[in-house]
Amino acid sequence: MVIDNSRLQQSLSDFRKYTGNQLANYIDDKLSPTIAEVIRSKDLEDRERQVWQPGWHAEGLATEKFWKQKLDYIHMNPVRKGLVREPEHWRYSSANYWVNNGASEIPISEVQVDNK
Question: How many domains does the chain have?
Answer without folding.
Answer: 2
